């Protein structure tokens, strides 16, 4: 029998960058998230979640203590090339969730989920699966304001894939 979508229970520190997971703990909403490394400390993990179709990150300092449901399929990011776009800093530049193409990376603006001192901004390096420090000195860039992330399934047509996030700036 084929069981879709294939997944296993793991500790968060055993998951790979950009792997789709769901937290298994009391009080968790169980939203689908992407695993991210922390560029300062490779032992720390972050979860990029997409509540209300806006990407937020949460830093997990002890990923060895968090059980997750880890999905086998690799996520797919589909950028709408006809959607909102800017070639320089203007309207959507500061929007949380905007996907940015620089000369050497694909990045996404993310906002910290919760913090007692105020929510911090960050950048998610999409290709490396790494949460990096926020920076504003982005030049020679393209800013994309419409995209989707899917959880693909080899047994279904693309129309039936699970949509993790449907973002529009």
Structure description:
The chain has strands at 7-11, 20-23, 32-38, 45-49, 56-60, 67-71, 76-79, 85-86, 99-101, 106-112, 121-125, 130-133, 142-144, 146-151, 162-168. With 169 residues, it is an all-beta fold. It folds into two domains: 7-71, SH3 type barrels, CATH 2.30.30; 76-168, no CATH class. The protein has a six-stranded mixed beta barrel with strand order 3-4-5-10-11-12. It has a three-stranded antiparallel β-sheet with strand order 7-14-15, with no helix packed on it. Strand 10 and strand 11 (121-125) form a beta hairpin. It is globular.
Estimate the helix proportion, in percent. under 10%
Strand proportion, as a percent range, falls in 35-45%
Low-confidence stretches: none
Total strand count, please?
15
Report the C-alpha radius of gyration, rounded. Answer: 16 Å
Mean pLDDT: 88
Oligomer: single chain
Largest sheet: 6 strands, mixed, barrel
Structural class: mainly beta
N-to-C order of helices and strands: EEEEEEEEEEEEEEE
Shape: globular
Number of continuous helical runs: 0
- N/C terminus separation: 41 Å
Number of domains: 2
Strand order of the largest sheet: 3-4-5-10-11-12
Kindly summarize this structure in a few lines.
0% of the residues lie in helices and 43% in strands. It has strands at residues 7-11, 20-23, 32-38, 45-49, 56-60, 67-71, 76-79, 85-86, 99-101, 106-112, 121-125, 130-133, 142-144, 146-151, 162-168. 29% of the residues are buried.
């Amino acid at each position: 029998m084929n069981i879709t979508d294939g997944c296993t229970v793991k500790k968060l520190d055993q998951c790979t960058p950009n792997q789709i997971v769901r937290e298994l703990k009391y009080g968790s909403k169980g939203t689908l998230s992407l695993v991210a490394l922390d560029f300062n400390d490779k032992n720390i993990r972050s979860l990029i979640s997409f509540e209300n179709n806006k990407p937020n990150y949460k830093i997990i300092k002890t990923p060895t203590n968090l059980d997750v449901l880890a999905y086998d399929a690799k996520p797919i990011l589909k950028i709408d090339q006809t959607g909102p776009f800017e070639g320089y800093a203007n309207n959507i530049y500061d929007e949380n969730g905007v996907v940015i193409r620089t000369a050497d990376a694909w990045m996404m603006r993310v906002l910290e989920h919760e913090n007692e001192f105020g929510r911090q901004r960050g950048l998610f390096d999409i290709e490396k699966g790494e949460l990096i420090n926020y920076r504003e000195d982005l030049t020679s860039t393209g800013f994309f304001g419409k995209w989707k992330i899917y959880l693909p399934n080899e047994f279904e047509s693309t129309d039936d894939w699970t949509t993790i996030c449907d973002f529009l700036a």
